[in-house]
Amino acid sequence: MPEPTGRRERKKAATRQKIADAARRLFLERGYEEVGIREVAAEADVAVTTLFSHFPAKEALVFAEDAGFARRLTEAVTGRAPGTPLVPALRREVEALVRHCSSDEAAPVYHLIDTTPALRQYEAAMRQRHADALATALTGARAGSPTACRALATFTVDAYALARDADEPAAALDELFAMIEAAWAAAGPGRP
To answer: Given Cys at both, which of 7, 54, 77, 171 links 137, Cβ 3.0 to 4.6 Å?
Structure first.
């Protein structure tokens, strides 16, 4: 997430982080299902209404980085310099996310997600939102037909999920992005 510039924005970002940290700590200590919203708010020393002003649902507390990932994916499309190839720009963002999510620090959180049905369902919906946002950015950048843009977006977001769960994430990304690059090239001549 970009650094907030104003005092108010910094304060809101600090409160949001404090809530996310408290939730993560409680969920990992006691289990997602065993912790209520009121407990998270109390642990973070905020009102429940403040918690909900930062996170729309209990599940969102586990995915505090959601908006940042979606933003980075769309900026890989909209912020790239003219003539910069599209697929490698997307791959860099997916690689960064896979590195983060495959780290030893993130392992307990992903174990929590993998063992909690509500979190797996939320994650699936989140990935769909990311694919939709990326498809919109690709279409807006006139990167290809709406169908090709939607396919590229879906493949890119799915590549993250597949690589994150692979025994060798880097090798999985190599294989997945070779297929994505070939599919994108086959979608039409002169793809950026």
So the answer is: 77
